[in-house]
Amino acid sequence: MLQPRHVMCGGLLALGCGLAWAADAPGYVLDSRGEPMRSVTGDCVRSGSWTSQSQHPACDAPRDRIVLLPGPDGKLGAVVVRSAAGEVRLDTAYAAAEVSKAGAIAQQRDDPASVARRFGAVQAAQPPRPVSFTVYFATGSATELTPESQPVMAGLKAELARRPAPEITVIGHTDRVGNAEDNDTLSAGRAQAVRDMLLASGTQTFSLNATGRGEREPLVATEDGVAEPKNRRVEISVR
Question: Can you give the pLDDT at residue 40?
Answer without folding.
Answer: 67
